[in-house]
Each structure stands twice: as structure tokens, then as C-alpha cells.
From TrEMBL:
It holds the Pfam family Epimerase. It comes from the Bacteria. The lineage of its organism: Bacteria, Bacillati, Actinomycetota, Actinomycetes, Pseudonocardiales. Residues 3-218 form the NAD-dependent epimerase/dehydratase domain. This is Nucleoside-diphosphate-sugar epimerase. It comes from Amycolatopsis echigonensis. One of its GO terms (cellular component) is cytoplasm. PANTHER family: NAD(P)-BINDING DOMAIN-CONTAINING PROTEIN-RELATED, PROTEIN YEEZ. GO terms for molecular function: aldehyde dehydrogenase (NAD+) activity. InterPro entries: Epimerase_deHydtase (IPR001509), NAD(P)-bd_dom_sf (IPR036291), NAD(P)-dependent_oxidoreduct (IPR051783).
């Protein structure tokens, strides 16, 4: 297949491109800068210049490809605008792909279900009190994608955990723990630190994206979860041990505006995904990577 990939030079996309090309797929990557274009080309993909706000570029990419994989996200200080830009980009793809039978895969997040592991059958938080929050808006974009199955689009949502990691690179939410520890001199956790966070290694995640691209039926939801839930205190202790810093409990506000999320227990299962796609994570766990040190500055 020819696959149009947004975020092709990013943390997930830069590993997804070689995963796809090694499997015999042709990749067209969206690049918003010269540096991104070079990185994509060096990985063996073709380049289309543009960004998530360039609707014409998105339409061109969708028209030229057999499938679209959307893993880009603009991590700007204005989170509300970033979420809105993503929604508009996905809607552009949806309109372009209607009645074509082509595939659209997007990255989303695992849901939070109080008291238990979330599963692929649990709905995203697209309604209720969180509907107008960035989390709710992103969930609505995921639901929009799934609904495209009714319009002859082979749509799928790959739910990623809060920490997508690889040694010496980014660690997802755990990167915020590292940054906070360095700036405050304390490796912190919220409350008793028993709240659990799921995680997946970058290379395990991109393999699942490829399997879903090749095998998924319209309207598929999968969980790219390797570690069902690492206690926040264990993560903080691993970080503190590598940085030579004390570990202690702090209020959620210690982590800024998003601190409330850090206090939530949010484990997730991928049992259904593993059975359906034969996906078995094989790379180091988040704790393994954190305990190895070598954190990027």
C-alpha cells in the first residue's frame, strides 16, 4: 500500500516510516520544515510539504495514498487550539476518504475507567462533564473517525497509553516526572503513588500500527498497551535513583495545570488487541528504560 503519514518525522512517525517500508509499503510523509523533510527522505519515504492546518496538502496526501495514518500533534502551549487543529485535520481526511474504501488510522489515548483496567470495548470520554475539555474533544475526534466506517472508510483508532517510551528518548508522561525532578530537586509522586499508568515502547507501538493497517476491519479500536499499569511511586523512585534525588509525595498542583491527571488511576488492558492481531510486545518496559538512565536533557 501507499501510506500517507502525518507526524512522519516525530517520535512515533519517525519509527513508523521504516516499519512500513520494511514491510513493503510505500510511504508519503507530511513535512512542515526543511529539517523534517530531510529526516523523512533519509528514512526512505517521499515528502509532501505542509502541516495539519494546510487542508489542501492533507487532501492531496489522502488522494495519492491508499491509506492515511495520522500520528501528528502540535504540542504548543495553546492546547485548545492544538486539539481543534487536529479535529479539523481528521475531518479533512474523513471528507476526502468517504466512499473510497481507503483506510484511516489515528492515534488516540486509552480511556480512564474508575476501579479497573480499561479495555478496547470501553468508550472514550467524548461526552459528560469532560466533553468540552481537551481530553473530551480528542475523544470526539476518535469517535468521528470510527463513525467513518459507515461511509466506506476502513477506519481505526489506535489508543496509546500516557507513556510511549524508548531509552534515551521521550518517555511520555514520565518525561514530565523527569523534568519536574530536575527543576525541583525532588522526584515526586501524587498522593500515595499507587495510581497506575499504562505504557508501551515506541517500537512495539509502531508494529501494532502496521498490523492494524494491514488487517483491521472498519471501525476497529485497539490498545497499544504493553505495561498495564506502573505505579507512579515506582516510576518516581526509578527516576530519583538515576538522578540521585529524594522521592516524596506532593500535591497534584506540583505538576502544574495538568496535575490532576497525574492523580488518576488509569490502567489499561490490551488483551483483546493481542488476541485479534497476534501482537506481543517484546521491547523493554517503561520501568526498565527509566532504571537504565541516560535521560535526554
Amino acid at each position: 500500500m501507499k501510506v500517507f503519514v502525518t507526524g512522519a518525522s516525530g517520535g512515533i512517525g519517525s519509527l513508523l516510516v521504516p516499519e512500513l517500508t520494511a514491510a513493503g509499503h510505500e510511504v508519503l510523509g507530511l513535512a512542515r520544515s526543511d529539517a523534517a523533510a530531510k529526516k523523512i527522505a533519509d528514512a526512505g519515504a517521499s515528502v509532501l510539504r505542509g502541516d495539519l492546518t494546510d487542508a489542501e496538502a492533507l487532501r492531496v496526501g489522502a488522494a495519492e495514498a491508499d491509506a492515511v495514518i495520522h500520528v501528528a500533534f502540535n504540542h504548543s502551549p495553546d492546547l485548545v487550539k492544538s486539539v481543534a487543529d487536529e479535529a479539523q485535520a481528521v475531518e479533512t481526511f474523513g471528507t476526502a476518504l468517504e466512499r473510497t474504501g481507503k483506510a484511516l488510522l489515528i492515534a488516540s489515548g486509552t480511556p480512564i475507567v474508575p476501579g479497573r483496567l480499561s479495555t478496547e470495548n470501553d468508550p472514550s470520554v467524548a461526552a459528560g462533564p469532560l466533553a468540552d475539555s481537551p481530553l473530551g474533544r480528542r475523544a470526539q475526534t476518535a469517535q468521528y473517525t470510527l463513525d467513518l466506517a459507515n461511509k466506506d472508510v476502513r477506519s481505526a483508532v489506535v489508543r496509546l497509553p500516557r507513556s510511549v517510551h524508548s531509552r534515551g528518548h521521550r518517555y511520555g508522561f514520565a518525561s514530565a516526572l523527569i523534568a519536574a525532578a530536575r527543576s525541583t530537586g525532588v522526584s515526586a509522586y501524587v498522593g500515595d503513588g499507587g495510581q497506575r499508568w499504562p505504557a508501551v515502547h515506541h517500537l512495539d507501538a509502531v508494529r501494532l500500527f502496521r498490523l492494524v493497517l494491514e488487517q483491521a476491519e472498519p471501525g476497529t479500536v485497539v490498545h497499544a498497551v504493553a505495561d498495564e499499569g506502573d505505579p507512579m511511586r515506582d516510576l518516581a523512585e526509578a527516576i530519583g535513583g538515576q538522578l540521585g534525588l529524594p522521592t516524596r509525595s506532593v500535591p497534584a498542583e506540583h505538576f502544574g495545570p495538568a496535575g490532576a491527571v497525574y492523580a488518576l488511576d488509569q490502567p489499561a488492558s490490551s488483551e483483546l488487541t493481542r488476541k485479534k492481531f497476534g501482537w506481543q510486545p517484546s521491547h523493554p518496559s517503561l520501568l526498565d528504560d527509566l532504571e537504565a538512565g541516560n535521560y535526554p536533557e
